[in-house]
Amino acid sequence: MLNNMTSLWKKSAAEIIKLIDKKEVSSEEVLSSSLSRISEVNSKINALVTICEDRARLSLKNNNISNANNILNSMPVIIKDMNDVQGVRTTYGSRLYESHIPKKSDIVVETIEKNGGIILGKSNIPEFAAGSHTYNDLFGTTNNPWNTTLSAGGSSGGSAAALASGMAWFATGSDLGGSLRNPASWCGVTGLRPTPGLIPHGPAKMPFLNLSVDGPMARNIEDLSLFLDAMITHNNKDPLSFKKALPSYFSNISNISNKKYLVGFTEDFGIFACDPEVRNMMQNTLKLIEGLGHNIVNEHPEMKGAEETFQTIRAYLFFSSYQHLSKKNQSLIKEEVLWNIEEGKKLKVDDLIKAEESRARIYNNSMEFFDKFDFLIVPSSAVPPFNSKEKWVKKIENTTYSNYVSWLMIAASISLTGCPSLALATSFSNNGAPFGIQIIAAPHEEEKLLKFAKTIEESINIADLVPIDAKDAYF
After folding, report:
1. What is the pTM of this model?
2. What is the DSSP letter of 301?
3. By C-alpha distance, which of 107, 214, 238, 225 is closest to 155?
4. Using CA atoms, how far apart are residues 281 and 410, in angstroms rounded to an integer?
5. What is the pLDDT of residues 65-83, one digit of tens each?
6. Are 384 and 277 in contact (CB under 8 A)?
7. Dist. CA 88–CA 192, nearest whole Å
C-alpha cells in the first residue's frame, strides 16, 4: 500500500487505475482521497455545490459486489449541475430548482455509471448554463484555481475548476457555444466537444437539435481519452445517437505516428475581435507546433454570418426551453436568460430558415476545408480569464458588445460545424492563469484529434502543473 493515501489526488487517473488493478490501492481509498481534497480546497474555489458521499459509497459497494471489470474501475466522477442524477439535488443553477431531486438520471449519467464511474458530486454552473462565467444566485461564483480573483469560465466552470484543483479526475461538461472549451483552457485542464451523437444525451425537449453536446473533461489527454471511452454508447432515446464499432481511444492514445500534418489556423476568422494577449499566445503556440514538423498555414473556413446564425438558433432554443418558466418567475431568473428568451420570442419562420441556410453554408465551407487540411487551430476564447466580478466581457479591441453571447463567437462559430473540438491550455496569461487553443478536426475524427493534441500537450507540459497545490500563492 502507498504510504500517503491522501496524496492520490496528485496522480493521473490512468496511474490510479493501474494501482487499483495491482491492488496497491483500493477504490475506497481513492474515494476518500478525493473527499479529503474536496474538504481542503472547495471552500476557496466553490467548484462543487452538492456532494453525494452516501450515494457514492453505496455505488462503490455495489460495484465491488458485482466485481465488474469496467472502464472507470470505480473512479469518482463529478457531474455538471445541468445533468440529472437520481436522488441527488440538481438545480440547473436556478433558484427555481433549489430543492429539485430527480427521480431518474439522464442518459449521460447512466452511461458513466454503467461503465464503472462513481458519481461523487455536482459542479457549479451559471443559471441554466447560460454564459461563459460560472456564477448564480444559489451558490455564488466559482473561482479560477490559478488566481481566485478570476473567472473559471463557463458554463462548465465548476467541472474545470474541480479538476484543476485536484478534487476529482473526471468531470462532465456540456458545450453549446464554448461552455466546455473555454473553462478547460482557462483552468489548465482539457475538454472535448465531440461530434454530435457520439455521446448520447437527454432526455431533451428538442432532441433533434445538435448545437449542444455533452463531453468529457479531465486533467490531461490520456485521462480524457479514458473518460471518453466511458461516455460512449448507442442509445435509441437520443435520436442523434449512432451505432459504430466501439473504439477504445484510451488503448490507442499511445500509438502516435510520426506523420506530419497540414494545419490551418486563424486568430479571428477575419471577422471577430481578439485580445492582443490571445493573439500573442496563438503565435507562440503555432511556432511550437511548427517546430514539431507540421505545416502551418494561415487558412480557415469562411464564417461569414456565423454570429447571426448562432444567435438565432440559440434564441430559438432558449425560448422553446424556458419561456414557460419566465411567464411567472421573471424575478427569479437572471436578466441574460430573460433577454435570450425574449430574443427567441421575436423570431419569425423566415429568421429560422435564414439561419439554417447560413449554417449549411458554414458546414459546407468547413467540410471543403477539411478535404485539404487535417486540423484547424483557433483560440479557445477571444480573451484571457477576466475578473470574476464582471458578468461577461463587454469589449475586445475596438468592438463593444451589447449582450453576453457575442464575445464567445470564436468558439461558438465552431459549434455550428458539428466538428469535434479539443481545448488545451498552451500558455499563461499576464494575470497568472492558463489559456490556450482549440484544435478542430473533421467530424468523427476524435482518435486522430486526441493523438495530435497529446503530442502538443507533451511539448508544453502544462498538464504536469495540474492539479494545483493548495499551498500555492493564490490560496
Report:
1. 0.96
2. -
3. 214
4. 15
5. 765 558 999 999 999 999 9
6. yes
7. 26
